[in-house]
Design brief:
By secondary structure, this protein is of the alpha+beta class. The chain contains 5 helices and 9 strands. The radius of gyration is 18 Å and the shape is elongated.
Length: about 190
């Protein structure tokens, strides 16, 4: 296997591992463009990776601002960092909220009951807390309705390994069905 192929395998393998157990790449930082044109960044958990399709999946509350921002401007960036190994991965791609109900429900079923409860609140993320308590938690149907499954179709990967001297950096671009990579100056 070529150096490019080995590095790409390491990159994609690290993403898959992040969905199979807690790794430094499980938590990443998603950058979107706000509806006002300004940058927005927030933490997300990598929930699923489809290597063949070049896709990463994350979940969020359907009423969160990031859903509106993705609808407004689907180009996103996702940054992950492994402090233990000194590796940074930056991903660029196009995001969309999954509309297919069957796919969304399939993802929902894989979440734990504790995770389901995160979506049951009747409160809207990012809004001021009400002065009066809200009547109890929302029900299961509210939770399902609030669950948004977001697909990020990766277009570019930037892998920077800072662990050695010299540092090593690879960039990969996806066109059609495959990845093309080259080592670049860190």
């Amino acid at each position: 296997m070529s150096a490019s192929g080995e590095t790409l395998e390491r990159v994609l393998g690290s993403l898959v591992a992040a969905t199979e157990g807690r790794t430094p790449f499980t938590l990443g930082f998603l950058g979107t463009t706000g509806t006002d044109g300004g940058p927005r960044v927030r933490a997300v958990i990598i929930r699923e990776v489809d290597r063949a399709a070049g896709r990463v999946m994350v979940a969020t509350n359907s009423l969160s601002r990031k859903v509106e921002e993705i609808d407004h401007q689907p180009r996103v960036a996702l940054t992950l960092y492994d402090d233990d190994s000194g590796v940074q991965l930056r991903i660029r791609g196009h995001a969309a909220v999954v509309e297919d109900e069957k796919e969304r429900r399939r993802a929902w079923e894989r979440f734990s009951p504790n995770s389901h409860q995160l979506y049951a609140s009747r409160l809207v993320p990012g809004t001021p807390r009400p002065d009066q308590p809200v009547d109890g938690p929302g029900d299961d149907e509210t939770a399902v309705e609030r669950f948004a499954w977001i697909r990020i179709d990766m277009t570019d990967l930037d892998w920077l390994d800072l662990s050695g001297d010299p540092h090593i950096r690879w960039q990969f671009s996806r066109d059609g069905g495959g990845w093309h990579g080259q080592e670049i100056v860190p």
